[in-house]
């Protein structure tokens, strides 16, 4: 059996193949990534397997009918072999250094169990979407959870900073 991957990337998707393909393309473009595996949970969309296999032939795909994203992510956890879990939505594109930066952070901070980053409005968003993102990143818009929605200084967080 192959050595365990450093990170397991978990994506939940369904009926959004162009978005999923852009997400997968950004993962495929990673520069010097650590070993990783890709797990995808679909709502039964027959096109998902084809889109995933085109870019990641070894990815494992699970199907769950009518599951909320949290429940669908939990299905993927049973198959995860990585030391770290990286949850991505199918509409996310990542920088080419994301996985290398995650590995460097994990090495530099062995006492940390969770890393997170902002949920920024992606390129091509409408003006309303950018304004909505800015509002959510403000204290008035989301209080302590605002760190989830915009670039803020790095630092420790506790349960008040997350929506779970």
Structure description:
Strand 2 (36-42), helix 2 (46-55) and strand 3 form a beta-alpha-beta unit. The protein is an alpha/beta fold and 164 residues long. Helices cover 34% and strands 15% of the residues. The protein is globular and about 45 Å long. Strands 3-2-1-4 form a 4-stranded parallel sheet, sandwiched between helices. It starts with 6 loop residues before the first strand and ends in a 22-residue tail after the last helix. The chain folds into 2 domains: 7-108, Spore Coat Polysaccharide Biosynthesis Protein SpsA, Chain A (Alpha-Beta Complex), CATH 3.90.550; 127-161, no CATH class. The chain is built from 6 helices and 4 strands, in the order βαβαβαβααα.
Question: What key attributes describe this structure?
Answer:
single chain, 164 residues, alpha/beta, Spore Coat Polysaccharide Biosynthesis Protein SpsA, Chain A, 2 domains, 4-stranded parallel β-sheet
Radius of gyration: 16 Å
Overall SS class = alpha/beta
Instruction: Just give the CATH class of the largest domain.
Output: Alpha Beta
- Sketch the topology as an H/E string, one letter per element: EHEHEHEHHH
Main beta sheet: strand number and arrangement?
4 strands, parallel
- How many β-strand stretches? 4
Distance separating the two termini: 35 Å
In short:
The chain has 164 residues and is of the alpha/beta class. The chain folds into two domains: 7-108, Alpha-Beta Complex (Spore Coat Polysaccharide Biosynthesis Protein SpsA, Chain A); 127-161, no CATH class.
